Amino acid sequence: MRNRKLYMALTGLLLCSCEPFFEDLPPCPHGVSIRFVYDYNMSYGNALPQTVDELTVLIYDADSTWVGTRRLTKSELQDENFRLQMELPEGAYHFAAYGGLGGDDPSFSFVREPDSGIRWTDMETALDRTCLADSARRRLKEFYWGTLTLSTADRYNGGTLHLMKNTNNIRVMLQQVDGSVLDIDQFEFEIVDDNTLFDYRNELLPADTVVYKPWLKGLATLDGTAGEADSAHETVTVGYAELSTSRLMERNAPRLRVKRADNGGTVIDIPLTKYLMLMGSACHGMEAQEFLDRESAWTMLFFLRPNGFWLSTVIIVNDWEVRVNEAGL
Predict the structure, then answer these.
(1) What are the DSSP calls for 99-130, one per residue?
(2) pLDDT tens digits for 170-216?
(3) Are 140 and 129 within 8 A, CB to CB?
(4) For residue range 264-315, what is the model confidence (pLDDT) as tens digits?
(5) Gap between the Cα atoms of 130 and 117, Å rounded
């Protein structure tokens, strides 16, 4: 009886085995199973199902030769249980995922479409420059990137590809310290940077300096706003402009500029990333570039003197009051 039980157990293992012991059994699937996650954000939670509506996945072999492309849809990405399973010949592969290159009016695209003649290390993506001039496209479509190196295995080798976001939305708000309402049309806003061309590692390559203009301007009423006007006013009306930009890099030198519309006089001209990093106490000890990459929605509130110029001792960045020491900038 004992031998019979041992025989049955061994038979079960053989039937589940991937070895071709029985010629009439199909071979086991061999390849990879990939999960896609976007948790490189300030909440550290997977926001991919809510934020990424399509992915272009490029597949390269160990020699960095293009093998193929897979395109994933919104319905697939909204499923937390979705895994991209692919049967591939034995070996190690590079997988590069790009979100925001498909669908309607993408803001970024491949410099050259992937094919067998373009190696992984040659792949580049770039901002469509018409987005800078066309007011209807200045709000950039969100652009995501991630990569994974994974070897195949029988019954699929599992791996997780983590995405990061390459686009930012920056809301610049102006408030009069005396509580009076300003005319937002009296001000012009821009961000100047060289950040439109990416290599295969998602690093920025030198290109041309570009100027980002607002995709939206208006007025908003705030309750309980921090600043000098609080003691005299319960509500304050501020002017705002929303600007959408490509990736912000610590090593770059982007500048935020606010000028008078009538004569071009300078109201604000600051090194953008240095001022964003003034709220470093809220970064939980992370490196500067990680903070710039995890955070993608910024609000900067500047206080204006009665003469319309910036009161450059304090600003509010993402609800954090920052006392400015200009000597360190």
Answers:
(1) ESSSSSS-SEEESS---TTS-GGG--EEE-TH
(2) 999 999 988 888 899 999 999 999 999 999 999 999 999 999 999 99
(3) no
(4) 899 999 999 999 987 664 556 788 899 999 999 999 999 998 877 888 777 8
(5) 28
CB atoms within 10 A of CB 13: 8
Distance CA 286, CA 294 (A): 10
* Dihedral over alpha carbons 291, 316, 302, 324 (to 10 degrees): -80
For 184, the 3-state DSSP assignment is helix
Spatial neighbors of 198 by CB under 8 A, at least 6 apart, are: 124, 125, 126, 145, 166, 204, 205, 247
CB atoms within 10 A of CB 209: 13
Is residue 314 within 8 A of residue 323, CB to CB? The reply is: yes
Closest C-alpha to 145, from 179, 106, 95: 95
The pTM of the full predicted model, rounded to 2 decimals, is 0.87
Paired strand residues for 300:
172, 317
Structure letter (DSSP) for residue 321: E
Give φ, ψ of 85 to 5 degrees.
-105, 130
pLDDT band at residue 7, thresholds of 50, 70 and 90? very low
Cβ(192)–Cβ(211) below 8 Å: yes
172, with CB counted inside 10 A (0-12, 13-18, 19+), is buried
In angstroms, the CA 69 to CA 277 distance is 38
**Element spanning 156, H or E:** none
The position carrying tokens 């809220």 is 282
